[in-house]
Amino acid sequence: MAVRITSVAKQLPKYTRKTKDILPYVELWLEGQDERFRRKVLKIFENAAVDKRYSIMDAEDVFLKTSFEEKNDIYARECVKLAEQSLVKALDKAKLQPADIDYIITVSCTGIMIPSLDAFLINSLKMRRDIVRLPVTEMGCAAGVSGILYAKNFLKSNPNKRAAVVAVESPTATFQLDDYSMVNIVSAAIFGDGCASVILSSYEDEEGPEILDEAMYHFYDAAHMMGFKLRNTGLQMVLDQSVPQTIADHFPKIIHPFLEQNNLTIAEIDHLVFHPGGKKIVQTVEELFGDLGKNIDDTKEVLRLYGNMSSATVLYVLERFMDRDLPKGDKGIMLSFGPGFSAQRILLEW
C-alpha cells in the first residue's frame, strides 16, 4: 500500500528584514565590545548566505525582549496563528477539509506549549474528535523529516487515512541578549522563523510522490553537538563548530547504504531535498555531490530567502519540488540533521 505526500504549504511570519537592515541592530547590540570583535561579528552576518529572514517579532523586540516569559508568550501566540494558516493552505492544495485528517503531528523545538500546538488546531479548525495526536519536540532541525516518517508509518498500517505534519519554529525567540558567544552569534546570523504543513495519504487514488523508504542514522558520542540549554533567559543554542566536518565524515555511510538497500545508486537520484543547516554545511554537501553532477540549488535558495528555520526548513525545500510538474518515476532523497546527533532520510518517487 502506497503512502504519498499530497501537498506542502508554507506560511511566513508577518515581520521581515533583509540582512543588511538587521546590521544596525547588531551594531547597537555590540556597543562596548572590542572593535575587532565587532567587525568579525558583522562579517559573520554579511557572509552567512542569508539575504533575508522572517520573524514572529520585529527586530526591535528581538533585541529588547529579555525574559523567557515574554518571548515564550509571543512564541505561543504567533505560532498557533502560523500553524493554522499553513495547515489551511495545505488542505486547500489537497482539496480537503480539516475533518478529513485522521492523524496530526506537530513539531517544534523553539518554545514551550502545554497543551501542545495540535490541541489548538483541533479546536480552531474543528478537526475530528477522534483524531490521533503526536506532538514532537526536542528533535530540532530533523523533526520535519521525522514527522513525515512517523506519519508514513501510521498510514502504512491504516489504509484510507490521511495525516498532517505541521512544523513551526521561531529561532529568533531563542536569541540570548547577554550572550556574545560565537554560537549565539552564528545562530542569530543564519536562523529565521517559519512554518510549513504537509498532507500525506494512504488512499490509492490520491496523487503525489510516494514514500518508498525511510531511515534514521544516529551518530555515536555526539549528543553534545546540537541542541539547547534551558536558561533563565530562555533556550540557549548549542552548536558545535565540528558539525560540518562530522557530517562530511559520515555522509557516505548516511547516503549509500540507504540507497543500496533500495537497489539504487546516487546516480539514479534526480532530486536532493536537503535541509540547509547553514553556509558551511551547504558547502560541505556541494563538495560531496558536485562531482556526481548533482546540485542543491533549491536548498541554497531557501537558505538565502528565509534562513534556517529549524524543522520547517526542509519542508520549504520540498514545497519547491512539489510545485513543479516533475516527470513520473523521478526519485528524490529528503535529508535533515538534528540533535542527538542524528540524520533522518526519506526516499521519494514521483
Supply the number of helical segments: 11
Structurally, the number of domains stands at 2
Mean pLDDT: 94
Shape: globular
SSE class: alpha/beta
Q: Find the count of extended strands (DSSP E, 2+ residues).
A: 13
How would you spell out the order of helices and strands? EEHHEHHEHEHEHEEEEHEHHHEE
**CATH class membership of the largest domain:** Alpha Beta
CATH topology of the largest domain: Peroxisomal Thiolase, Chain A, domain 1
Largest sheet: 5 strands, mixed
Order of strands across the main sheet = 1-7-6-4-5
Residues in helices, as a percent range: 25-40%
Please identify, by name, the CATH architecture of the largest domain.
Answer: 3-Layer(aba) Sandwich
The low-pLDDT segments are: none
How far do the termini sit from each other?
A: 15 Å
Global Rg: 20 Å
Classified in CATH, the superfamily of the largest domain is: Thiolase/Chalcone synthase
Strand content: 15-25%
Question: How would you characterize the overall build of this protein?
Answer:
This protein has 350 residues and is α/β, with parallel strands linked by helices. It folds into two domains: 4-201, Peroxisomal Thiolase, Chain A, domain 1 (3-Layer(aba) Sandwich); 210-349, 3-Layer(aba) Sandwich (Peroxisomal Thiolase, Chain A, domain 1). The chain is built from eleven helices and 13 strands. A hairpin with a 3-residue loop joins strand 12 (331-338) and strand 13.
Tell me the layout of helices and strands.
Layout (H helix, E strand, L loop, with lengths): L3 E8 L3 E4 H11 L5 H12 L5 E4 L3 H4 L5 H26 L9 E5 L9 H9 L6 E5 L6 H15 L4 E8 L12 H9 L3 E8 L8 E9 L7 E6 L2 E6 L3 H18 L10 E4 L4 H12 L6 H10 L6 H10 L8 E8 L3 E8 L1
Parallel strand pairs: 4-5, 4-6, 11-12
Antiparallel strand pairs: 1-7, 2-3, 6-7, 8-13, 9-10, 12-13
